[in-house]
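<purpose> Linking amino acid order to shape
<body> The protein record starts here
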Amino acid sequence: MLDFKIIRFQHLRTFFLVHLCLLIPMITLLAQNNYEFEQYTIREGLSHNSVQCILQDQQGFLWFGTEDGLNRYDGYGFKIFRPTEDSNSISGIFIWDIAQDRNGNIWIGTNNGGLSKYNPQLDKFTNYQHSSTDCKSLRSNYVRSVLVDKDDNVWVGTYGGGLNLLDKTTNKFTCFLMDTAKAGSLAKNVIASLYQDSKDRIWGGTEGGLH
């Protein structure tokens, strides 16, 4: 019985020492990384405190989509883009998502304003919206997600209008919708997020699961 207690004690001591050796570097690392967070709000010039998406473009500018406009930050201040009566302005004020293509164009998904493309060289927007008379138009103006894939194709996930693929040559859309009679179709017409993986597969997060 005594030998058993000694062996058990030695095992416990070894267990404690091993875990202590593992814990000390973790404590040291946490002590070295004293993180501090800097805050930017409407007081610093941001258009709205609710930020939905962030993008850093090819020039290094940071873009923030908010509930009250699109913001571009140059390291010193914010430039805010909101809809105006000018047809070259952004189409929506509530911004869900932002992406950039090879040519440097910024693609913006808006809430009930459709899809906007910002050309930084011309400093103007081109807008894509649903038209009841055009079956090749954007299916819904509620754009929740935007993805520019590795081939520079623009994919648009909407609320209620399924997944839309833009042909940038014709400015027409191919739409992929839920079809209960068709195998392999979307489970829902709400596409909340889009992602392309390392094998070039497009993933879509929907209200009916993952595609």
Remarks:
- Residues 1-9, 15-22 have pLDDT under 50 and may be disordered.
- The radius of gyration is 25 Å.
- The chain is about 15% helix and 35% strand.
